[in-house]
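Before a colleague's protein record goes any further, I have to sign it off. Alongside the sequence sits a line of tokens, each denoting a local backbone shape. I want your independent view on whether this chain really folds as the tokens say. Where you disagree with what is written, explain briefly why. This is what I was given:
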Amino acid sequence: MQLPFTLQYFVALDLGTAWTRGASQDGRLAVMESERHGLRGMAAGAVADAGTCAQIVSSLFRTLRPGFLGRPHAVAPVSACATPAQRAAILSTLYRSGAFSVTLLQQPLAAAVGAGLDPGSDYAQMIMDVGEGYTELAVIRAGRVETAEVIRAGCGDVRRILARHGTPREIWERLRWMEQNLFENNTGLLPQETVDALGELLDTLARGAAAFFRRLPDRTACEVIENGLLLVGGGAMLRELRRRISLQTRLAVRVPDQPLNAVIEGARQAIPYAVRFSC
């Protein structure tokens, strides 16, 4: 007789500043806000409040559990720039959430897999992940991250700028507008002061990408020129940011069909091979 529960199961996680995503091996997706009672569980890729983070992840585990009982094997991407202390804090929090085991992956590799790239390619590939709390730039080759760095700016800064002159509904409408339009097409929906502030922020991200690219070794840079730049995360939705990155780097900027889910989808696909790519 088959028991109505599974003792062990796998859950992929994306521990974001704004949203925490979980996915089962069979493709079920669950998304929860990363804030409870005014406390954020994660901030800029690091544990901000362990108790809050553990509660959210524990809820995801229960949501994705295939039966009545069981403890999950968790697969969680982390920033390639995370310190040993930050990795240890994430491990501790996930075990506190009820995980049976935890495998940490380097986030750029997960994003590459989720976007349809071959992370094992011998040719260098550049990835830019613009998240809520920070932006990570990385070059991957042959299943590992060759180099990476973090810019302390992201989508949360976009929202804070929009919040200066708008209601929550207006913020939502302006974000949707920015997904489809360039600033030069602004007909008054965005106040000029907002356009100027957003322009400075987007230029910071674009210049950061260009500076990162210019520091690459010649061989790596040539391969990146051939392959282009993969842009994922919430920032990939902003058309003006894509334009400015392309202008600053002179690279072809590619965006996957679902840039918001690149990391969680990559982590889900990596479940069978998680130990090989653990960091």
About this structure: The chain has a mean pLDDT of 90. The radius of gyration is 19 Å. Residues 192-214 form the longest helix (23 residues). Residues 13 and 139 are 22 Å apart (CA to CA).
